[in-house]
Fold this protein.
Amino acid sequence: MSRLIGIVLLSLVPALARCQDTIALTFEPSLQEYDLLMKELGIAGSEHQRKLLRLSPEERLAARHRSPYRTFEPRFLILAKEQGNIQGGFLALKWLVDHADPGPSFDQALEILGERYIDHAEMPQICRMLPNRLSPGIEDFLVKVGETHRQPGVRGLAYYCAAEYLSRLYSITTQRLFDEKAWLANAEQRFSQDAIVWFQKLELAPLRDRFDTICRVLHSRYQNTLEATSSRTFGELAAGLEFAFEPVGKQPPPCSGNDSRGKVVDLDALRGRVVVVMFSANWCGPCKVRYGQLRELKREHADRAFEVVTVMADKERSTVQSAIESGDITWPAIWDGQDGPIATAWQTKIYPTIYVIDSNGVIAARDLTEDALDQKVSELLGVDWKQKSLLEKRSRIRELSLRNQKLQSEDLPEFLQGYTELRSLDLSDNPIGDDAITHLLHLTHLVELNLQHTDVSDHGLEMLQPLQSLKLVKLYAGPGSKTTSNGRRNLKKLLPGVTVSFVTH
């Protein structure tokens, strides 16, 4: 019997060899072409970075949209079309989903994925990537996966990602309609012109209707289906999205936890008071910028039924305690940790996110600007709101970033007027020179100054001598730098307590 088995196995060797050759011919060339294309992209990317270093800050800003990724998009798409239903083609499509700009190449990649790879093992990963991208074809693709994938869990995931995506489009459209000019200025730095034209055609009502439709599907078909990477069902996740989509007028999710010293802080216990809830973290610069306003609100309404609560996403409890001890935070701070339960329940994905809760425990507003937040809190407390002067508001700010604002030296007096309490100032990536330093000398509390990728020279560094409060100066020391090693050493002599850090790229 064993001899017979051996004869059969020997007879199969040539067939197995032919099969192995076929597999090699099917997969290796496609992977080889993909690997060669990725290698070529890496070389082009490195060369692009070297060219950027030789440009002024203003020129670098203008060159952002000339990334080699854009020129490689058609080549990855051609590779995907030529390779058919094999691994190299899938990897090319996955690269496009991760890197391509909104537009035809991106949407064609989704179309091919839907035709050839709908049941691919990595389809859940593809679905999770898409809510963070923006392109017209994403919604239809996710709905197609939700309708046709073999596994119920992946179908539920696709619908959930479609709801997430629509929620993001709704938020972007709301911001655009609120202040078209400011939105456009920001969008031009981030998106292509084709994408901006598409955004400008979006309307709130149709987005809301499509979002509601997707959520109804999640509740009716996948209410009790567990999402693979969490312990929550798609019904629970959909309820969270529905809250975050339009929270004003709703009761907030639970917000209870321990502060940095272990004391319990519970939002329900503050019923009867107007409460500002801020989701923040010590690694979030824009969050810290808002602390000054919250300290001012606490002082202004100290004798009224008003409170501030911060939910902190810091990895360690100790950094929250440090922010309290430094005086940055003067109100209860719940330590939630990274992706903690409170932030998850409130569907918080952007920091800072600020809510105003009225005395009945209902959300009255979300993400108001400085003036609007002051006004809303005063309105809910029954206080006549008076317009605070710009200088009064600036005086409470301790950290300011003017990075990449195309500022000239002569612009600084206007931009810095009134910031008497600044501790940290970021002027990097602006075409400012030595004459800019004269406009900084009134900042007598300044501790940290970032002058990377500016035109400040050794002479400008010498002009910093009156700012004896400085403890850290950040500089650029790569090709084209106006400062030298001698200038940096001299600065340390002029400011004995200062640390000079620098980058070369």
In short: The radius of gyration is 28 Å.
